[in-house]
Amino acid sequence: MDEHIYTSTELTGSSKKSIEDAIQNAIARASKTVPNMRWFELLESRGYIEEGMVSYWQVTIKIGSTL
């Protein structure tokens, strides 16, 4: 089995739909400039409230990429 070396990048994504969509948005945008992405870890999630309702979700994730 090959040994892998990873680099990690921390990203924050947002979405008006859901936490999952916020994660997808962050990964989709990162894929334009970060090569060889292999995994992600959800570090934290937040929501923004307007007029007593959730207005949007925000997540911070760590992306692992192979070197």
Would you mind describing this structure in some detail?
This protein is α+β, with helices and mostly antiparallel strands and 67 residues long. It has a single domain (6-66), classed as Dodecin subunit-like, CATH 3.30.1660. The protein is built from 1 helix and 3 strands. It has one helix at 19-30, and strands at 6-15, 37-50, 53-66. A 3-stranded antiparallel beta sheet has the order 1-3-2, covered by helices on one side. The radius of gyration is 14 Å and the shape is elongated. The two termini are 16 Å apart.
In percent, how much strand structure appears in the residues? over 45%
Class from secondary-structure proportions? alpha+beta
In the CATH hierarchy, the third-tier topology is known as: Dodecin subunit-like
CATH class: Alpha Beta
Quick structural gist:
The protein contains one helix and three strands; from the N terminus they run βαββ. It has 67 residues and is of the alpha+beta class.
Question: How are the secondary structure elements laid out?
Answer:
Layout: E1 6-15, H1 19-30, E2 37-50, E3 53-66
Antiparallel strand pairs: 1-3, 2-3
Summary keywords:
67 residues; alpha+beta; Dodecin subunit-like; three-stranded antiparallel beta sheet; 1 helix; 3 strands
